[in-house]
Amino acid sequence: MDVPLLNLELPGVRKLKSGKVREVFDLDDRLLFVATDRISAFDCIMPNGIPRKGEVLTQISHFWFDFCQSWLPNHRLARPGDPLPEILKPYAAQLAGRSMIVKKAQPLAIECVVRGYLAGSGWKEYRTRQTVCGIPLPAGLQESSELPEPIFTPATKAESGHDENIPYERAAEIVGPAIAEQVRNLSLRLYREARAFAAQRGILIADTKFEFGIYENQLILIDEALTPDSSRFWPADQYAPGRSQPSYDKQFVRDYLETLTWDKTPPAPALPAEVVARTQQKYLEAFERLTGRPL
Question: Which CATH number does 1-104 carry?
Answer without folding.
Answer: 3.30.200.20
